[in-house]
């Protein structure tokens, strides 16, 4: 993986549920741009039941020996969790979105991915093809995130990786 400076994002919060994202890129064809954003999800207001995932597990996770990819987690109300996994496949950036139920000390998530659109302002939601990627099972072991996956998408197969916390929510420490 080669890290290339892309540019700068500026996020201006208008309300607790809306913001404006502006960017100035060093790379063509991204240039500069501006777009409004609306909150899509919100962390849980109550701790999930049982021993396992808690609100404090929301944040980002990575594997130090494989720095350059990782998972963002958000623990939601109703015993749900959302994960976004940013990885690479054949040298190209690739991301997956997962959602599922927290069941005791693990979470079983259905995973989707997408393709075929462009960067804003040329982005068109009608161009996006969303497809099933597979399943991920997450579990917490002290302050380590265990990730088991099985994918039907060529190049991913099945496997396991353990990740450690990279960031946490400031008002929700795991004590």
Can you walk through the features of this model?
This protein has 175 residues and is an all-beta fold. The chain folds into two domains: 1-40; 41-167, Lipocalin (Beta Barrel), CATH 2.40.128. 0% of the residues lie in helices and 57% in strands. It contains no helices and eleven strands. It has strands at residues 7-15, 18-25, 32-38, 59-62, 70-76, 80-89, 92-103, 106-115, 129-141, 144-151, 158-168. Strands 4-5-6-7-8-9-10-11 form an eight-stranded antiparallel barrel. A hairpin with a 7-residue loop joins strand 4 and strand 5 (70-76). The chain is globular and about 45 Å long.
CATH fold title of the largest domain: Lipocalin
* Strand composition percent: over 45%
Q: Which percent range fits the helix content?
A: under 10%
Spatial order of the strands in the main sheet? 4-5-6-7-8-9-10-11
Low-confidence stretches: none
**CATH class bucket of the largest domain:** Mainly Beta
Summarize the structure.
This protein is mostly beta strands.
Write the layout of secondary structure elements.
Elements: E1 7-15, E2 18-25, E3 32-38, E4 59-62, E5 70-76, E6 80-89, E7 92-103, E8 106-115, E9 129-141, E10 144-151, E11 158-168
Antiparallel strand pairs: 1-2, 2-3, 4-5, 4-11, 5-6, 6-7, 7-8, 8-9, 9-10, 10-11
Keyword list:
eight-stranded antiparallel β-barrel, Lipocalin, 2 domains, three-stranded antiparallel sheet
């Amino acid at each position: 993986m080669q890290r290339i400076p892309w540019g700068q994002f500026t996020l201006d919060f208008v309300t607790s549920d809306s913001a404006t994202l502006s960017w100035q890129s060093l790379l063509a064809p991204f240039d500069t741009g501006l777009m409004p954003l609306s909150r899509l999800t919100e962390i849980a207001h109550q701790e999930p039941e049982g021993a396992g995932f808690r609100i404090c597990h929301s944040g980002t996770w990575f594997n130090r020996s494989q720095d350059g990819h990782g998972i963002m987690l958000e623990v939601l109300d109703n015993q749900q969790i959302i994960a976004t996994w940013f990885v690479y496949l054949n040298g190209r950036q690739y991301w997956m979105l997962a959602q599922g139920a927290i069941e005791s000390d693990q979470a079983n998530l259905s995973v989707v991915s997408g393709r075929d659109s462009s960067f804003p302002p040329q982005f068109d939601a009608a161009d996006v093809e969303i497809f099933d990627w597979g399943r991920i099972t997450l579990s917490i072991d002290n302050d380590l995130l265990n990730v088991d996956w099985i994918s039907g998408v060529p190049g991913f197969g099945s496997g396991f990786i353990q990740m450690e916390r990279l960031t946490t929510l400031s008002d929700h420490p795991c004590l």
